Amino acid sequence: MNNRLSFPAYVGVAALAFLAIAADGYDLAIFGAATPNLLHYADWGLTTAQVGVIASAAILGMGIGSIAAGVLADRYGVRRLFLLCVSWFSVGMMLCAVAPTAELLGAARFFAGFGLGGVVPTAVAVTMSVAPADRKNFLNGVILAGIPIGGVLAALTALAFLGVLGWRGVFFVGGAFPLLTVVPIAAVKLRRWVPTPHALRSDGRAARPTLRVVFKNLGPTGWGALAVFTALTFCGQIQWYGLLTWLPQIMKASGYSLGSALVFLVIFSLGAATGASGGSWIADKFGERHAVLAAFTVGAVAVMTLAVHLPSPVLYVFLFLAGAGTGGTQPIVFGYVATYFPVDIRTSVLGFVAGVGRIGGVCGPILGGLLAGRPPIVIFSVLSGIGVFAALLCAVALAARKAEKDHTTVTASTPAEV
């Protein structure tokens, strides 16, 4: 399949996927950057707990959207679902910008979440369908680095325009960009660049596995692997979204100015981008399990260190490592899932893992809101402990699962053969 595609073709697909995921990352990070403004928005008088619930509304929608998009993409074509998801969350972001009440802002965040949740599994699936065999993890890491890169762009946009445009303006910008750029280009180019064999077909003639059929044929080994990947995603999502939403506010409460806190968010997001691409390169060279284990371990140590007052250069290093070991870990896990299960059910499984794992993302901002106001040592200890648990789970559970990979692949392939 890949031999039919020229080099520029799969680079073009990856570039579009990267831009879409970067817009996804912008949306998630801009809420964290705007959190101090929302807390001081006199018209609404929000508490930290209420802001945490609003932040989680998008992530709850993402969980539902991830599962739905994964199944629908395998049934009706990943290209169509990719375009639908990008369009959906772009409109949702613009609805956030004009929300007249806090309740409607939460509803708009939930609405946008449906599209946001579908972007990652469909973008990964469409990229994996054209990626060279020996570069799948690397390309997966590159496109998923768009999430933290989007976070960097969100922080920079907030630094430059939040004071001028307000939180509504920076939300509108984030919705307008993908709708006016990614969607029209992808609508024209993906039909020519991406082949449509088997589950990727959109003409209705290929096998259309349902989530029920996929689960029925996974077998004990496949179910075990699915449970481990989902648990790792759950842990990573708590850390990533908890810090992404509350890091500026935590650092501001620790005595730093809002400008400095947003700079910290930039460094944190750059670390996540580097961890995503670098960790995925390590996965291609040394194995996915080693890369995931190392990433969670580095993240746990770095997050714990943030509780200590350090000289600025040292603090920047540990912020960078904290980003690499939290936000940078999830792309490696997704790449592991994408190469572990066969192509026929790849998007369904990715959608399930991302969707159920998003429950952790829902918990992250809420947990941060509940812990806000407590000493930083408490907040960072909790988030670090979650990373330690994930590292231990990876070390203990995935060692056996990896050895049984061949059996899992054969078992999980059954739906495509029925």
- Residue share in helices? over 70%
Output the helix-strand order. HHHHHHHHHHHHHHHHH
Distance between the termini: 22 Å
Number of helices: 17
Which structural class do the helices and strands define?
Answer: mainly alpha
Name the beta content range. Answer: under 5%
Number of DSSP E strands: 0
Query: Please, what is the average pLDDT?
Result: 80
Q: Main beta sheet, described?
A: none
Low-confidence runs of at least 5 consecutive residues: 197-206, 400-418
Using the alpha-carbon principal axes, give the shape. Answer: globular
Radius of gyration: 20 Å
Can you give a write-up of this model?
The chain is mainly α and 418 residues long. Helix content is 83%, strand content 0%. Helix 4 runs antiparallel to helix 14, helix 9 (219-253) packs parallel to helix 14 and helix 10 packs across helix 12. The longest helix is centred in the middle third of the chain and has 35 residues, at 146-180. The two termini are 22 Å apart. 58% of the residues are buried. Mean pLDDT is 80; it is low at 197-206 and 400-418.
Would you kindly provide a brief summary of this structure?
The chain has 418 residues and is an all-alpha fold.
Layout of helices and strands:
Elements: H1 7-39, H2 48-76, H3 78-97, H4 102-128, H5 136-144, H6 146-180, H7 182-193, H8 211-216, H9 219-253, H10 258-286, H11 288-305, H12 312-325, H13 329-340, H14 346-371, H15 376-403, H16 405-412, H17 414-417
